[in-house]
Amino acid sequence: AYAVPREIEGNGIVSFIEYVLLPVSALKHGDNARFVIDRREGEGEPLVYSNIETLKEDYKADRLTPQLLKSGVANALVSLLEPIQADFQASSAWQDIERKAYLTYPPPETKKKEKKVKDKGSKHPGAAKGVEAQPDGSVEGRRKDQVSLGTGIEETMKKLDALPNGAT
Hints:
Largest sheet: 2 strands, antiparallel
Radius of gyration: 41 Å
Helix content: 40-55%
Number of helices: 6
Number of strands: 4
Order of helices and strands: HEEHHHEEHH
Mean pLDDT: 84
Strand order of the largest sheet: 1-2
Distance between the termini: 79 Å
């Protein structure tokens, strides 16, 4: 959650402490409601708040930083949920319900995409596609009439004569 330093208005974390964590603590400890923020070694004693007004004042004065506030809320949530987690771990019925509620399926098989064989053509630029030269010198394919000079000498000579001057 985003918590702007020194701003109380619109701060969801402070509201969560005010309307959830402090009332839960009051139910747990009677009139002795408290919200505790443990600090790292060397930073001082834990901060203990019994009312929201003191917490808000410290937050506005920057004695309570957003980082400390967030870690305190996280620790309070963990301690709040510990008994529920312990009951869940001890109950095979609840674990069975969880397995039924959240079915796990094996991951779907993924087919490996087959590579398309690319027609790279011939080594000669402008060669007709779809035409293949045979070992006997003949040409086969759907465009053979465009590249073939003919089957006999006379037909070949006629086609060569039809070429423009200088073309071979």
